[in-house]
Amino acid sequence: MGSEKRILIERLQKDWKKYWDLDFFKENNFLRKKCKNCGKFFWTLDPDTELCGDSSCVPYSFLGNPPTKKKLDYIETWKTIEKFFVKNGHQSIKRYPTICRWYPLFFTVAGIVDFYRIANNKITFEFPANPVILSQPCLRFNDIPNVGITGRHNTCFDMIQQSSLWDGKNGYWKDKCIELDFRLLTEAFGIKKEDITFIEDAWIGYGAFGYSLEYFVKGLETGNAVFTEFEGDLNKFSTLKEKVIDMGAGQQRLCWLTQGTPTNYDVMYGPVMEKMKTKSGIKYDEKFFLEYSKYSGVLNMDEVVDMKAEMAKVAKILGVSTENLMEKIQPLVALYSIADHSKALLYALSDGGLPSNVGGGYNLRVIFRRALNFLEKLNYPFDIEWVIEEHAKYLKKIEPELMENLGHVNQILDIEKKKYKETKSKMKSTLESLIENKTELNDEKLIELYDSQGITPEILQETADKYDVKVKIPADFYAKVTEKHLQEKRGKEEEKVDVSGTPKTKKLYYDNEKLYEFKAKVLKVECENIVLDQTLFYPRGGGQEPDHGSINDCEVYDVEPYDNVIFHRVKNPNFKVGDIVVGKIDSKRREQIVKHHTATHLVNMSARILLGNHVWQAGSKKDVDKAHLDITHYENLTEEQTRKIEKFINNMIKKKVKVKKEVLKRSVAEQKYGFVIYQGGSIPETTLRIISIHGIDSEACAGLHVDNTEEIEEVFIFNTKKMQDGVIRIEYVAGKELVRETRERIKTEKKLEEEHLEKKQREIEEQKGKIKKLKEKSKSLFGVNYVDTEDMKEIETIAQESVKEDSTKCSIIIGNGVVFGIRGKDCKEDVLNTVKEIAKVMGGSAGGSGNEFKGGGPLKNKGREAFEKFKSQKL
Description:
Radius of gyration: 35 Å
CATH topology of one domain: Threonyl-tRNA Synthetase, Chain A, domain 2
Largest sheet: 9 strands, mixed
């Protein structure tokens, strides 16, 4: 348990009746007790129980003995839950993507994240209906080592999300939530009332927090009802105007409860797991594994300090050694991990994720490689693509898009396999080098290896064991990596400028993007920083470079926004606060940048259509002379792909497609166009400006755009390059005049480059011939000699070749401004002193070590003079 959460629970417990003493509990005669084992407070209808029901306090007692009225498969479990909540006034909604585009997280880590939004630098909750129910696939990567071990942990799982906003009139609050959840378990699933316990707990999220009731059945946590009542943090917070019911329940856990199988993996993957077991030919002791599963709940690496010691305790209970226990469970652990990781990849890649060394792509790459390691190590007769296809087939009834995206998913995985093969040997040599050099493998270094090379703790441990080196891998390793990436995603704070007391600037450029002159009142003059009451000058933002122009004929060379106040950088302003001034926009510059901005939307749209839905904008710049767009893609573009994208764009231009600009409420925009509107990232505004082209591409964008694609005239892609792993840059220009100029420039540059290469080739050939002749002469170039050259490398080669013929001799070659001396391994002459004296003649100095010495000076014309002076010197 985190320290913040512990502090929060301690605070809340001082006034526990205010938070957990529900009317529902009183009306139904629940008893509040303190767990004899862990000390947590819980609510129960069983007067005899002394334990809270958490798996760390009681073993799973539902295994082989399900407490429900009937067995349900994975899909039936969801349908049962959905039916119950719809009947009780909830609207069932479609799942959100597992790649989180609407909020600064890499992945949808919980069902409630679907409704997270930011407004005025605060978290807010936006529901498409109230109350709602859905089954949300979630991705979490802090539990990777627990997968397969505990029987209940996953990187990919479906969270039943029951949510409601409560303002005192609409929606519902605590009592209704717990009543519904209790009825779900007892009525829909047929669980005995006495088998259910509610544990008092708390939850801290990003900018909001609350208290909760976790509910357990026979050792298994089946849900957690969070009552999000506060915004802010523990030091400074206020009560939310609309309180939030955030009940999350693992769909696989409820399904597991109905079947009582050894693990949740056996039920959540349905026929996929059965096929994997059959195909692998795996042999295991079912009775033993069932017994192991009852105690495996304590093997949670997030909570256990010493995993080996805890594993030894479980082994002792089962009457085997730790080594024998690992040997018995390892094949199944591997099988379960492969099934889990492949399902996570199926969802993530279908939803536009991409394995890489960038952002959340780290996690996808690691689980892919971890699954491959298991497959290779245990030599199972199937590949990960087969497992993924089986998942897609099984889920087709409720998630048809997974099957539709299968070809695209396999294409990405094929590329990833090739990359893995290329880097695998490199990874092992890196580790071996670190171990041999006794590099301290602390937490920071382990995370660096994971981030930079995808080296997982499993691969590291395997290599360390070969060298009999002890490496301590933290139990919460993946949690630390996830938190690091979340911090990166939140990003660095922008430069703060104090604009308090300064009115917001009215943005005239949205009213008429083709208006280039206006009048305004001066509100602020600070050196060259000018604030007006209104402006036509578009400020830098969203990758679009700012307008230039003039205010009262004074040059405006930059424009920046700070909290809706626009600052104009003006050279030598000749006006003061209160003056009415005339602003003029450089229309030619504006028109060109606007063409580039709309062209950027076309480039992005075309790349997504032609390359796949994994393509997302990773950055852009729209300037006056050129533009570029960075996209997420697994390899650099071929010339054929580049020209196809370019052709698609120019066809859209020829079709004269209208560019629609509209301002919509954020929730309306999301429902109308989907989350693809967040190509440029999440936007912390309650209303969004949407730019739509042909009904194919719709993006939230604050930039300026043409009214019709024909205004762009033409787009020419002049370069593509890989910026980093998983990110490709496309560079282009728009507008006939600029396209023509760019083509001519590239043509001229290419011609000059070819001429330069030809010249360089001729020089190389001449040099080769020269060196060949000198090498032939070098056999007799002992002592001091002169060569008419300024090239140190050339005289080095000649001298080195000379002493190869006779190791007792030495050779000093003087050039123009350079000198090099070498003695054979059996020569004892003082070559260094002579080289120094020669260098002095040329106005410089010399040095060296071993048998080679070199130097020179700026007086290049003294080379021959130095030779005449020293040629007769005996060496």
